[in-house]
Automatic annotation (TrEMBL):
It is a peripheral membrane protein. It is found in: Endoplasmic reticulum membrane. One of its GO terms (biological process) is protein folding in endoplasmic reticulum. It comes from Thraustotheca clavata. This is Endoplasmic oxidoreductin. GO terms for cellular component: endoplasmic reticulum membrane.
């Protein structure tokens, strides 16, 4: 049976009951609409990369594992223009020596080019010839996330286990001083793992129809309070990052050419951030911060003690970069797609929370913003899903 969780979510400033109520009444319905709007429903991904850690060439052929690419007409035309401008700028930058005399590196040239074409599509990677992790533009495809939902695919056994194991093993910071970061890393990964397995149980294939699988949920998630606790922590972590990025998100250019959706994105985002007078905000306020909006988590507790702060931050960032690479070892294409989105979303949240100055937050790439909102939506769906499973367990118990 799935336990009721009470009290404060460890490492946060929020209690379980408040999170449940605010998620069901406020966050989840709004996020559930936001992720359907044009800007948030198309994700650009390279699903063809080889696993850099072990041989894993037996891709799953199950129909539930496959991902369908969008037709070109579906994608906002503006995005293709931005892609072409990015490609051109990158190629040009690669062929030009770095203009050190004017103090201008390759990255700033791309920034300048972006500014010239009027995009707010900021590069995540510097143009580095040694950066093997750069996506190959030729292999990038656009995917409609609504048509490729994250759900049960049958991906399991050795292959899935090996990937999860490799991800958990990244949690080795080689220093006793970093125990808080180790705990946070573990909790974020375990929370994401719980959330993914909750989605699998929520949208399970029973022969020719889909529905929630209560037994599977209890066996993989409900029977483990610690896994649930980690999921609430991860949710609050990402919620806090989105709250911290509020001003940028509210002023971002979301135009895709779809008049209704473009207008609606701003309305929904405004509504999402409108929690100033809610019980949630009163109960989830970080004690040190009076700008209490979507808080519930005090990131100043992190990355501030021990050896060199810069070193800690770099370590944390590198861990997530490695996890991104491990995603290429997932042999189910749909799981790989959603794994990549959610890891990028978590990495983006970390990037936002690591920034010292709330007035100098890092610029984000379009895909990062899409991933951030989608991972928050997936987590809110899981939080809401746990309540639904509890209710189903209760009704099953009454029947028997
Ligand atoms: P697993 O979930 O594979 O877990 C392996 C071991 O990790 C467990 O035995 C347990 O010891 C430990 N563990 C389990 N949960 C936690 C936790 N929350 N915290 C800490 N430790 C834990 N399957 C789908 O059907 N659809 C998907 O979209 C999908 N996406 C995936 C994405 C990724 C990146 C990966 C790696 C797997 C994905 N899977 C997906 C597979 C799914 O997550 C499970 O691996 C699979 O269902 C088998 O589950 P399991 O119960 O055997 O244990």
């Amino acid at each position: 049976k799935t336990p009721e969780l009470t009290g404060t979510v460890t490492d946060s400033c929020c209690n379980y009951e408040t999170v449940d109520v605010a998620t069901q009444a406020h966050f989840h319905p709004l996020l559930d609409e936001l992720r359907t709007l044009s800007f948030f429903r198309y994700y650009k991904a390279d699903l063809t990369k080889e696993c850099p850690f072990w041989a894993s060439n037996n891709q799953c052929a199950n129909r539930d594992c496959s991902v369908c690419e969008c037709s070109k007409e579906e994608i906002p035309a503006k995005w293709f223009e931005q892609d072409a401008a990015m490609r051109e700028a990158k190629e040009k930058a690669l062929n030009e020596p770095c203009d050190e005399q004017r103090g201008e590196g390759e990255l700033s040239k791309i920034d300048r080019k972006n500014a010239a074409v009027g995009t707010n599509f900021n590069p995540w990677y510097t143009v580095d010839k040694d950066d093997v992790e750069q996506d190959n533009e030729d292999n990038l495809i656009y995917v409609n996330l609504l048509e490729n939902p994250e759900r049960f695919t049958g991906y399991s056994g050795n292959s899935a286990w090996r990937v999860w194991k490799a991800i958990y093993e990244e949690n080795c910071f080689h220093s006793k001083e970093l125990c808080l970061e180790e705990r946070v890393y573990y909790r974020l990964i375990s929370g994401l793992h719980t959330s993914i397995n909750t989605h699998v149980a929520l949208d399970y294939r029973f022969g020719d129809h889909w529905g929630p699988n209560t037994k599977m949920f209890v066996a993989r998630v409900g029977a483990f309070p610690e896994r649930l606790q980690n999921m609430y922590f991860t949710y609050l972590f990402v919620l806090r990052a989105v709250g911290r990025y509020r001003e940028v998100l509210l002023n971002y250019d979301y135009s895709t050419g779809n008049e209704y959706d473009d207008k609606r994105v701003n309305e929904v985002l405004r509504a999402l951030f409108d929690v100033d007078n809610s019980a949630y905000n009163a109960s989830c306020r970080a004690p040190t911060d009076s700008r209490a909006v979507l808080f519930g988590f005090n990131e100043s507790m992190l990355f501030s003690k021990g050896i060199s702060v810069a070193h800690q931050r770099e370590q944390f960032r590198l861990k997530f970069e490695n996890v991104t690479r491990i995603m290429d070892c997932v042999t189910c294409e749909k799981c790989r797609l959603w794994g990549k989105i959610q890891i990028l979303g978590l990495g983006t949240a970390i990037k936002i929370l690591l920034a010292d100055d709330i007035h100098d937050l890092p610029p984000l790439q379009r895909n990062e913003i899409i991933a951030l909102i989608n991972v928050l939506h997936r987590l809110s769906e899981s939080i809401e899903g746990v309540s639904r499973f509890r209710q189903m367990e209760f009704e099953d118990a009454l029947k028997s």
